[in-house]
Specification:
It contains 7 helices and 5 strands, in the order ααβαβαβαββαα. The protein is an alpha/beta fold and 190 residues long.
Length: 190
């Protein structure tokens, strides 16, 4: 996963710059990203690799204010940091959990979901078919690597499972744009 690691390093460096950048620089960066993304899709996912840091919090806040029609899907396990994001209709925060998550972090996730309601939701990475999934989780991702998906999902999958993560399910290409559950409150709650 060399390309993913290289991208993560690039993102960390850029967000380090944006942590203390003037507001004008943040706005220019937000405009540049929106100009590249919006002709192709109306959402942007943060952190396929990496996680929140001070510069990314500032950038997400700026981007959400400048482009309210662009849905921002923020995947994180940094529950203390994510509380600093503004209450914006276009920010959707996926709180990442799994069977190894500490009780303290589960409690933090539940508190964030209560405070922020539908904009903050829990996602669970399921590693095997017998792993229990909490009822308050909105989205389940069957653990997979690239095209090697969990074979047990053919017969025994939770109905909340992302179809792009199950064996024989949706292809990854455009799966998120078609489903939209992770960045569309109405689809997630129905």
């Amino acid at each position: 996963m060399t390309r993913a690691l290289i991208r993560q390093v690039e993102n960390v460096k850029r967000f380090n710059v944006l942590a203390n950048a003037p507001t004008k620089v943040l706005a220019e960066e937000a405009f540049a990203i929106a100009r590249r993304v919006t002709p192709h899709q109306d959402f942007l996912r943060f952190f396929g690799v990496g996680d929140l840091q001070p510069g990314s919090l500032r950038f997400i806040s700026t981007l959400s204010a400048m482009f309210p029609a662009l849905q921002l899907w923020v995947a994180t396990r940094r529950f203390d940091d994510v509380a600093h994001l503004p209450h914006q209709e276009n920010i959707h925060v996926m709180l990442g959990l799994d069977a190894t998550t500490t009780a303290t972090n589960v409690a933090k996730a539940k508190l964030l979901m209560r405070k922020r309601r539908a904009r903050f939701y829990a996602a669970w990475v399921q590693r095997d078919e017998f792993e229990p999934i909490p009822s308050w989780v909105s989205v389940v991702f069957a653990e997979h690597q690239m095209t090697h998906r969990a074979t047990w999902t053919r017969k025994n999958k939770d109905p909340r499972t992302c179809m792009a993560t199950v064996a024989g399910g949706t292809k990854h290409d455009n799966a998120c744009a078609k489903c939209q559950r992770c960045f569309n409150t109405e689809k997630r709650l129905n």
